[in-house]
Amino acid sequence: MFFRGRRPRRARQGLTLVEMIVVLVIIAVVAVMIVPNVIGRPDEARVTVAKSDLKAVAAALRMYRLDNGDYPTTEQGLRALVERPTAAPVPANWSAEGYLTEMPRDPWGRDYVYRSPGRTGAFDLISYGKDGEEGGEGLDADLTDKSR
Question: Is the pTM of this model over 0.85?
Answer without folding.
Answer: no
